Automatic annotation (TrEMBL):
<dbReference type="GO" id="GO:0045022">
    <property type="term" value="P:early endosome to late endosome transport"/>
</dbReference>
<dbReference type="GO" id="GO:0032456">
    <property type="term" value="P:endocytic recycling"/>
</dbReference>
<keyword id="KW-0175">Coiled coil</keyword>
<protein>
    <submittedName>
        <fullName>PTN23 phosphatase</fullName>
    </submittedName>
</protein>
<feature type="region of interest" description="Disordered">
    <location>
        <begin position="658"/>
        <end position="730"/>
    </location>
</feature>
<keyword id="KW-0963">Cytoplasm</keyword>
<dbReference type="InterPro" id="IPR025304">
    <property type="entry name" value="ALIX_V_dom"/>
</dbReference>
<keyword id="KW-0967">Endosome</keyword>
<feature type="compositionally biased region" description="Pro residues">
    <location>
        <begin position="663"/>
        <end position="674"/>
    </location>
</feature>
<dbReference type="Pfam" id="PF13949">
    <property type="entry name" value="ALIX_LYPXL_bnd"/>
</dbReference>
<dbReference type="InterPro" id="IPR038499">
    <property type="entry name" value="BRO1_sf"/>
</dbReference>
<dbReference type="Pfam" id="PF03097">
    <property type="entry name" value="BRO1"/>
</dbReference>
<dbReference type="GO" id="GO:0005768">
    <property type="term" value="C:endosome"/>
</dbReference>
<feature type="compositionally biased region" description="Low complexity">
    <location>
        <begin position="706"/>
        <end position="717"/>
    </location>
</feature>
<dbReference type="InterPro" id="IPR004328">
    <property type="entry name" value="BRO1_dom"/>
</dbReference>
<feature type="coiled-coil region">
    <location>
        <begin position="504"/>
        <end position="531"/>
    </location>
</feature>
<feature type="domain" description="BRO1">
    <location>
        <begin position="1"/>
        <end position="343"/>
    </location>
</feature>
Amino acid sequence: APCSQSAVSVPRDFEGCSTLRKYLGQLHFLQSRIPMGSGQDAAVPVTWTEIFSGKAVTHEDIKYEQACVLYNLGALHSMLGAMDKRVSEEVSCTHFQCAAGAFTYLRDHFPHSYSVDMSHQILSLNINLMLGQAQECLLEKSMLDNRKSFLVARISAQVVDYYKEACRALENSETASLLGKIQKDWKKLVQMKIYYFAAVAHLHMGKQAEEQQKFGERVIYFQSALDKLNEAIKLAKGQPETVQEALRFTMDVIGGKYNSAKKDNDFIYHEAVPALDTLQSVKGAPLVKALPVNPTDPAVTGPDIFAKLVPMAAHEASSLYSEEKAKLLRDVMAKIEAKNEVLDQFMDSMQLDPETVDNLDMYNHIPPVLMEKCAALSVRPDTVRNLVQSMQVLSGVFTDVEASLKEIRDLLEEDEAQERKLQELLGRVPPAPGSPPGLAEVSKECSKYLELHEKASFTNTELHRAMNLHLGNLRLLGGPLEQVRAALPTPTLSEDDKQVLQNLKRILAKVQEMRDQRMSLEQQLREMIQKDDITTSLVTTDRSEMKKLFEEQLRKYDQLKVYLEQNLAAQENVLKALTDANVKYAAVRKGLAEVEHKWNTTVQTLVASYEAYEDLMKKSQEGKDFYTDLEGKAAKLLERARAACQASQAQRQQLLERELKKQPPPRPTAPKPPLQKKTLELEPGGSEAADLGSLGLPDLPEELRSLPPELLPGPLAQLPPPALATLAGG
């Protein structure tokens, strides 16, 4: 009684686990010596409280006491694993693996009819929950240790696999009825974890793709991670703030990775983004296992306090028979697992899902995401017009800026041309009287504005191209729903195609039926072995007859074995029929896949056009603001350019006058008689300088004789060309 009492009120620490293991071992030693099992002479009532209902459950069976101790051992280990602050991941991981081991031993070695919390489904649920949390601990450690991205992805994928198994157990109708109200909460939490760790797995697959410079794969993995994380967030409503904070942090990480990867691929790498289902799936890497429970280990149970009470012969014989049953179960399970592995690999390679093998229902309606965009545009009928008007205004300002900059550039080029012409006429570089104020600055600013304009011109062109790309889609989304539905592709199937689909669905249903039957037979075999206890017969059987008795008792399993063999043998024929049906389905599948791809592409394109509208409007407004500012600056610069060019022209005029003043005064000449009125013909190549000198005009330097009249100073500038000059004599 003291030992039993200490097992009921154990401390929540390692010492409590040790106490439960010792008590379990002593119960095992006791039951092998005294007939305390159900219906036996020394059986005493054992009462425990059921965890889910809170009801007291009593059985006159010592194995029920052992089962309850085992359950509490698993529960205590799970509590210690959850209570640990993860100072050391190994400690928590070990606790969860020990818990899984306790529940596994309870499921495989004890009847499931004792209470609700000991049913096969509940124990399987507990096992997978424990293994999933143990794998979580290793996932945390691998991320803290900066392990390779692919390894982290596989570890996270295995967490998902364990929780999927747990979710399947929760979805079982028997489990739902046993758990009651908490079933929905547990299922929601497990599903949230499935999506969350799937997101973590795809996040690290995206990191691996980034390391391998597969930028298209990186985008789709990060997008998938983002989608799965959004599903996890939806399911996390009502969870503690610590969970919400973790989800928000993960969203920041994955969202940032996705946005950066998509932007880089769109503008730099331009790699095709593959469909997620075309990439190799992430296979989980199980790094944890259920640590086995050995109730007879002296290192755990301590010395056998009933060693001198009863001979062990009957127990030894029963143990031998249990080993024969275990061998039979191992042989059958090896065959089942081999066939299941072949079946799983075959179905994975086929990629056939009975529920979505044709997916025709999706074409009967506009998808919700597209309906949402259509509804949004229906209340904004001026969407397209506003966009076009905004782009037209941008084009007008763009043209004005371009005209102003061109005029400035022309003024500067004209000034440079006048400067070169003057240099050619003088035959040398004139001495610089000082550059006109602001001309160099005008040229510098003009170059800067031209550079800005050229860069903005490319952006402007891209913006117009994007607008033209999305304009038609926006008109379609804002139009009648019938037009939207008509724009979406739909498959066209002949009667033969429909027959092929029906045949394929029928065979897929046969595959599922074969699976269900196999699981049912396996469960029946396990339960039959569990209930098979021949201890009473062994007491009255001579040792020499033990082998014969074992053979007779094991024949009761022959019928079940035959059924299982038939089920396993039928698999080859079913898969052959499925292969033939799939060959016929190939052409139909290809057509459906192409239509589905076009459908998805069309939907994504229309959604992208809607989402691009706000961005286009924003960028066009930014363009207008930019060019309006540039237009004001260009107008001011144009005024400065005009002033500077005028100043430059004035300087050149002053330079020319100074050059003329440097020439010597005219030579004195004797008085001449009055001339008769005549015309002086200055022949080309003649003595123009002498004739001009005889007219009392200064001799021009050689470099000024070819200047046009408009560049000559004073009276010379008014003189007609030499060939046409006339003088009047008095």
